[in-house]
Amino acid sequence: MEYKTIIVRIEEGIATLTLNRPEVLNALNDQVFNELADAASEMAADPTVRVVIITGGEKVFAAGADISQMATATAVEVMTSDKPSHRAFHLIETMPKPVIAAIAGYALGGGCELTLVADIRIAAENAQFGLPEIKLGILPGAGGTQRLPRLIGPGRAKELIFGGDFIKAEEALRIGLVNKVVPTNQLFEEAKKMAKRLCDRGAVALRLAKSAVNEGLRMDLEAGLQYEDKCFNLLFATEDQKEGMRAFLEKRPAKFQGR
Ligand code: CAA
């Protein structure tokens, strides 16, 4: 597929999706969201892709949804829009492979919300996060009011959503918004290192582990435990489970085939 607002590169099982609208700090318009959705579907279906990295490059992740596209919209237009952002975020969040967000510079509004649909967030030291929608007279409408409280708790999420202020990478780490902070010039190396580690794991086990966590978050504990149990049981039907346990007993690294 051909993309204009994102760059898609696949190397050694790792697909890197790079947002590419530098002139507007990677502001996310409908075209970007549609291309992200198409790329997410393509990466999900490509058996050679094991892990996906989403980034905006070294300077900026994304300064949010494209304000110029929204400025004159009416309520009816917004309400009846097919919301490409929602489709893209759903496809990324439910992708049956690990997704890592590698974040440098601003991750604001829809940009911050995009990081929330990744499984793991790695921030460069120069990263800044924020949900400034309140200062535009709106609220975070691409999952921010729902995913952020689930990740960092409602108190901290409300502070970010109500105040609209930016926080630096270290603060994002402290409140659990990101998994780790790395020197800016090592961001891609660190993201690749983590992606490579995940490429060595069993793809089916990863898929079900992601599903168990994500689906479980939508259930009460008892239902979540039952769902986990079903995923766990199913993995005993895979060759990867046999290989993983055999390799442990034979004191050698496992070679998973993803089946
Ligand atoms: N949409 C459209 N264009 C944007 C943009 C956005 N979200 N963010 C930046 N740009 C454009 C600017 O208009 C500017 O374009 P021109 O050169 O043509 O004027 C260019 O990118 C560079 O931006 P600045 O000159 O403003 O750069 P700066 O370094 O002075 O400031 C910034 C950087 C603090 C990130 C500032 O650009 C900013 O505040 N951007 C908007 C952030 C924001 O409010 N994001 C939320 C959007 S709403 C949303 O995301 C809704 C949702 O939930 C889905």
Automatic annotation (TrEMBL):
Highest rank taxon of the organism: Bacteria
Keyword Signal: no
EC number(s) given by UniProt: 4.2.1.150
Pathway: Lipid metabolism; butanoate metabolism
Keywords: Isomerase, Lyase
GO BP of this protein: fatty acid beta-oxidation
PROSITE patterns from the UniProt entry: ENOYL_COA_HYDRATASE (PS00166)
Molecular function GO terms recorded: 3-hydroxyacyl-CoA dehydratase activity; isomerase activity
EC supergroup of this enzyme: lyase
Catalyzed chemical reaction(s): a short-chain (3S)-3-hydroxyacyl-CoA = a short-chain (2E)-enoyl-CoA + H2O
Signal peptide (from-to): none
Family per record: Belongs to the enoyl-CoA hydratase/isomerase family.
Assembly with partners or alone: Homotetramer.
Protein name: short-chain-enoyl-CoA hydratase
Biological classification of the source: Bacteria, Bacillati, Bacillota, Clostridia, Eubacteriales
